Amino acid sequence: MRYAMAIDTKKCVGCTDCVVACQTENNVPIGYARDWIVEVTDGTYPQLELEFRSERCNHCDNAPCVRCCPTGASHIIEGGIVKVEHDKCIGCGACVAACPYDARYVHPEGYVDKCTFCDHRLEQGQDPACVAVCPTKCLYFGDMDDPNSEVSKVVKKRKFKTLIPEAGTEPQLYFLI
Amino acid sequence: MVKSRRDFIKISALGATGVAVGSKYLFAENNQKLKDTPKGPFKLPSDFTRTPTYCEVCFWKCAGWVYKNDKGEVQKIKGNDDDPNSNGRFCPRGTGGVGMYNDSDRLKTPLIRVKDKYGNQTFKEVSWDEALDYIAKKLQGVIDRHGAECIALFTHGSGGKYFGNLVKALGSHNIAAPSYAQCRGPREVGFIATFGDGLNSPEPTDIRDTKCLVLIGSHIGENMHNGQVQEMSDAIDKKATIITVDPRYSTAASKSKYWLPIKPSTDLALLLSWMNVIIEEGLYDKEYVEKYTYGFDQLKEHVKNLTPEWAYGITTIKPDIIRKTAREMGHASPSVIIHPGRHVTWYGDDTQRLRAVAILNALLGSWGRRGGFYIPDKAKVPGVPHPPYPKPTRSWRDAMQGKYELADLALANGVCDATIPDPSLGCSIKAWIINGTNLLTTLPERQKTIEAINNLEFVAVIDTMPMEITGYADVVLPECTYIERYDSLRVTQHREPTIALRMPAVEPKYNTKPAFWMAKELAKRMGKSDYFPFETIEEELDWQLKQVGTSLEEMQRIGVKKLKRPYDDLYFKDGEDVEFNTNTGKIELYATSFEEYGFDPLPKYTPHPEPPEGYYRLIYGRAPMHTFSRTINNPNLSALKDENYVWINPKVAKEWGLENGQEVYLQNQDNVVSSFPIKVRVTERIRWDSVYMVHGFGHGDKKLTRAYGKGASDSELITKVMLDPIMGGTGMRGNFVTFLTSKPVKEEAES
Q1: ipTM for the complex?
Q2: Taking the CB of residue B749, how many other CB atoms lie within 10 A of it?
């Protein structure tokens, strides 16, 4: 089992619904976010290109945040999901600095917080909140080890990129381009 | 400086007696009525962990569920899978609707304007009885002195239905929504003149099955018209061709096969040249045009010389692109949509531009066809029985002196005009009830609106938030949010008819009340109880629902009820005889109704003024996480976007020495300067002759703690209005701005 997400940049309109849905699902305090939108414009008027990316933790196979955690609070669970155990976290911020994707933030209560792929929802057979809410259905989620999962199929079929592959983190977010 | 009769009161300026937690009335009654009601036949909000609602953050009215946490607090809102408007997926504003409920800046208790012995005006907190007695007395005074026709209602949103019932019961039909003459009115009139039917909401565009979607200034994806955004995404999946016409590289433009970066205000020339190509190259649906339309020969003659070469000189769009895109449409026919858009009041000839859109759709045979426009259906839910409304003898139309007769709904600006005294009028409007619309930002020409307000004898404002307009009220009634109330059923058109219920998830916060209760209480005080025959809204809804084979009990469980379409008539059948609701019974390419009223029966291109040297056309639009000015203070949504930027082309920025993030003030052609500075966004996404900003920012009321002074208000800079002679729409895109790098010193106002 290997959870992964594909994000179709051809369909994403950058509406930030994924951000709000995550916040209300996971009680993320206002002003903080576990996922976010990146907008990139290329070219000069009128030869232009525009890309929207819904980004979050890449749940890397080779996760620097887990390696550098002094207390073991950052860990990997079933399906490759990178998580932080809030009680064990001392808020030292080493993981925040180590993450090349800037996917972690220090919660006002002192611990580090980040995307969990909504593992509490996965247990109930539901998709992560961001995937379930997306009006453009541009987020695909599932098991990359299962060749019949939606995410496997779409990654196989479409051209994609990953973010900062040179960091060697083996990220599990696939951006369809 | 002479103080106007009705000073603007900033609700924040109340000082010691202000709206503070723990004040006398804040929790005094605290909705005892709801809490103390003995358990009746209906379940209460506390009986559920998930309650149905339909969203009030915009007009799309998606149906969903409010979920509560273990403590019974509102946690999140999600779409209802059975709802065709949302398909179980809310947009960011709907998802962030919880913020509307949690906003601590909400209006919390009724307020009445009072004057101290020095003539200073402030708001005083009062009980509901006091506020309602006062309104009833004031309205009765207006009726006695001037007649009920001198009362007007401006409304946006669900509660308006109940105030509308009250106003009609009193004997006035002056009920206007800025969503008409400031927004979609021209397209309704343009489509009615052509097809005999308007579009209404949600628009029956069959985007999910279209082969070609043409957007003209419509920025789906930035406007989160939920169902349409979803279907545009489906269309992208199915490889439909998208053609976007916009001077700005919008989100939709970036999803398009063709982006036509048109020179602003020239769209009608492009539309006419498309007709020229489609007719000259025989790309139109000949059978459809032959069978269903009237006036093809006149149209052919009319556009004969309006070639792509002609349009090139006007629009700056190259002839080969005009031809290519016309052919794309022709090849996709009839599964093609020239999208009518929604906010279409741009240049004052908007009805004619939308007529051109309607004509193109007719030529391509897309009206009533799969992948074009489907024929919507709507549930027939009987209204609550009541005595007939008294017949008004006068209305706002009298002030229009025969103009705008083709307007099928009341014009908010018309009602505003009818308020300003004019010797030619028998009587001008004397009292406004303003429900859920911040008229100062929704109507252009702010000074005119203020002038109208200053001529009123009485103003009541009903809202959930202290908006600029509340500062002009004599009485402010705080409404509870949609999460805390029942409302009328949602009965909107779609592919299949549905009914959706909104019920409270929790008791209302503070000393707030729902519109039904307010309107009914006012009706009681004014001897109009017969018009509100049910004691509670639960009873009224249950009665209505039982007429259509369901009940409040069932709707509380399912939220959305799908009804069967009585006939299999989503699209026209091949060769079917169809009679259209026009003079000729045909689709009128040549509008005989316009001819009757002395307007051009075929749309003509007219040039519009261009920005003077050093000025740029002000174009405004939407951001996906906000609904106009209403959501800017919502804690969840303001966290996503708390200010707007002025988009400036790099060439222009260089010329002015402007940098990203730099603050500037904007000054328009009438020397109106924005109240607040706005940050510059240097971007290739906008033409060099225009600037762009998202509408709704630059709030001037300090009580809106997150929105106050953030960004600039486009409305404030829209002082020039180009009136649509056909239906009175207020064209707002003829305003030009320049940049001030520091705030000019304001001259003292003369007394």
Answers
A1: 0.96
A2: 7
Percent residues over pLDDT 90 in chain B: 84
* Per-residue model confidence as pLDDT tens digits over B578-590: 999 999 999 999 9
Residue B704 CA to residue A165 CA, distance in Å, equals 44
Q: What are the chain A neighbours of B92 within 8 Å (beta carbons)?
A: 15-17, 19-20
Chain B residue with minimum CA distance to A138: B233
Domain count, chain A: 1
B250 → chain A, closest CA residue: A50
Q: Do residues B503 and B553 touch, judged by C-beta distance below 8 A?
A: no
Task: Of B379, B373, B343, give the one whose Cα is nearest residue B208.
Answer: B373
Q: Which two tokens stand for residue B185?
A: 């009115």
pLDDT for B118 equals 87
CATH of the domain at B391: 3.40.50.740
Of chain B, the end-to-end C-alpha distance in Å amounts to 4
Per DSSP, the residues of B130-166 read: HHHHHHHHHHHHHHHHH-GGGEEEEE-STTHHHHHHH
Which residues in chain B (78-97) have CB-CB distances under 8 A to chain A? 78-79, 89-92, 95-96
| CB-facing half-sphere around the CA of B283: CA atoms within 13 A | 23
Number of domains in chain B: 3
Residue ranges of A 17-36 with Cβ closer than 8 A to chain B: 17, 19-21, 23-25, 30-31
* A67: containing domain: 14-140
pLDDT tens figures, A37-62: 999 999 999 999 999 999 999 999 99
Cα B593 to Cα A83, B21, B99, B349, B409, distances in angstroms: 67, 58, 47, 17, 17
CA distance A63 to A84: 12
Q: Does B230 sit within 8 Å of A137, measured CB to CB?
A: yes
B102 touches chain A (CB under 8 A): no
Contact B236 A11 (CB under 8 A): yes
B76 contacts chain A (CB < 8 A): yes
Burial degree of A51 (CB within 10 A; 0-12, 13-18, 19+): middle
Q: What is the pLDDT of residue B748?
A: 52
Q: Is the dihedral of CA B324, B327, B331, B336 positive or negative?
A: positive
To the nearest whole Å, the CA of A69 is away from the closest chain B CA by: 30
Give the other-Cβ count within 10 Å of B106's Cβ: 22
What is the pTM (predicted TM-score) of this model? Answer: 0.94
- B282, B370: one domain: yes
Residue B321: give its domain's CATH number.
3.40.228.10
Q: Is residue B3 part of a domain?
A: yes
Indicate whether A168 belongs to any domain: no
* A31: closest chain B residue by CA: B639
Q: Whole domain around residue B137: which residue ranges? A: 1-30+112-158+386-405+416-478
The answer to whether B229 faces chain A, any CB pair under 8 Å, is yes
A135 and B230 within 8 Å at the Cβ level: the answer is: yes
CATH of the domain at A127: 3.30.70.20
Q: Taking CB atoms and an 8 Å cutoff, what residues of chain B touch A132?
A: 78, 89
Amino acid found at B32 = Q
